[in-house]
Amino acid sequence: MIILTIIGMALVTVIPRFIPAYIVDKIQFPTWANRWLNAIPYAALGALIFPGISSVVPDRPSVGLIGGIIAIGLAFFGLNIILVVIAAISTVFILTL
């Protein structure tokens, strides 16, 4: 009975992920839809990152915002992501001393 439950849970998890990935390659979307779909990862990333930036130091949200602005600026100039992260962390660290 446990094995059947595990198999059922695996199917319920895999099927909704597999079907869209399989179908998207077969469908031609209009240009506006492709532009909209390409923006989703950036919007999701921003939605995940911004709450963390604003709560780095709860009583001083400007510290996190300055670190985020530094990261955005360095990423805009095409620096390696590791350097961007290190610079943002260093900025927050220095501002919290």
Structural class: mainly alpha
Helical percent range? Answer: over 70%
Helix-strand string? HHHH
**Which regions are unreliable across 5 or more consecutive residues at pLDDT < 50?**
none
Classify the oligomer. single chain
The residue-averaged pLDDT reads: 91
- Strand-residue proportion: under 5%
Pfam families: AzlD
Protein name: AzlD domain-containing protein
Organism: Aquibacillus salsiterrae
Transmembrane segments: 6-24, 36-57, 63-96
Word description of this protein:
There is one protein chain. By secondary structure, the chain is an all-alpha fold. It folds into 2 domains: 1-45, no CATH class; 55-97. The protein contains 4 helices and no strands. Helix 2 (31-54) crosses helix 3 (61-76). It is extended and about 55 Å long. The mean pLDDT is 91.
Task: Provide a brief overview of the structure.
Pfam families: AzlD. The chain folds into two domains: 1-45, no CATH class; 55-97. 80% of the residues lie in helices and 0% in strands.
Main traits of this protein?
mainly alpha, 4 helices, 80% helix, extended
Question: What secondary-structure arrangement, pairings included, does this model have?
Answer:
Blueprint: H1 2-24, H2 31-54, H3 61-76, H4 81-95
Pfam family, one: AzlD
InterPro entries: Brnchd-chn_aa_trnsp_AzlD
Organism: Aquibacillus salsiterrae
